[in-house]
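Please, structure for the following, as tokens.
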Amino acid sequence: MTQPLHLLLVEPDPSGHRMVLHVRLIAQEAVARGWRVDVLTSRAAAKHSALHAVRAVLPANSGVHFLADYSKGTGSGRIAMLRQQWNAYRSLSHSITHLAQQINPTVTYLVNLDNIYKVLAITRKPFGGTPFAGMMMGLGYHRRATGLGQGRWHDRIAEGLFRRVLRLPSLRAVTVIDAALHAHTSRAGVPEYSKLSYVPDVGSRECIGSRSEARSAMNIPDDRFVILVYGSLSRRKGLAELIEAVAWSPDRRVLLLIAGQADAGATEILEGNVARLLTERGQIIRSEGFHDADREGLMFAAADAVWIGYVGFYGSSGVLYQAGAASLPVIAAQEGLIGWLTTRHGLGACCVPAERDTVIAAIASIANDPELARESGRRGRKLSESHTPEQFAAAICDAIERSRP
């Protein structure tokens, strides 16, 4: 008789969606399957609300363990990024290797392999040979081949590094949320790609209460056209581009509801002159910090549309599916998987965030056409039904089950 699987889930960062959504959902599904589950995270997560949400789904025999502290490093550019990946890998390798000797997990699943995969490509026996699996979300070497965007000079190098990682004997499986990437690799006839499994990105969230109740709670007039910017806030969210477009737009009904934890770059934008001007006009409302389920539902209930016009990002976004679950249209970046999904499924309007006039036009197309907004929201709702938390967690646990030694 096969012994119940013992899963070690690894995610250092408590902010964003990976801890509160991915780790929690995977742990919940694993426990339901009768698996033993342990979690490895950073000490910074110890008092974070996201880890509290994870603990709530863990049984008494589960352990929460903490990584060895390490210097993340500073700076930008490829050398700084490699240094940061190396520091992250060393901390993970030390902690996973020693913890595995103590608790002997069947499989270790890293929720985010992106921040160490270049280092993995040059290692022979990562994590002391502990069987592991994980998710990749930031791969982009397939953009030109799949029509998601322009190619880059280093695409062949990136693909080679990824295939090298896949050849590691102790790497049992890699999950991806990019349907275009999975289709591309399935056609490639490359043996290493057999380790890849597609899982549907997740963003399901029902609204809490009605729009009028949500707007009343936040003192938002009913006649405003509310665009929600939701999640971990950084420059990559396209905040600067959206704020500038709204400042230049003649439509003063537009109001930005900006909800989430802002990093240093986003804070600089939100405290800048243009954002201050919009705030004074009553066109920006902020809801800061971590949002639990009730607070999150309130944000989506108050919105007319959701901004996913991200800059320099070509992957998937759970916020797209959250918008769909709330029957809301999106205003999306034209390039990348987000733009591909928005166009393919008719989820809203696309723009080029760096081109202000296209942002203004995309907003106007949704704000001035209620039928388009309703139809886009209906299509989004239909798409979100195949990207539920249950489907996401089950697909990952199925991949882990198949990967057990």
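The first strand starts at residue 6 and ends at 10. The mean pLDDT is 91.
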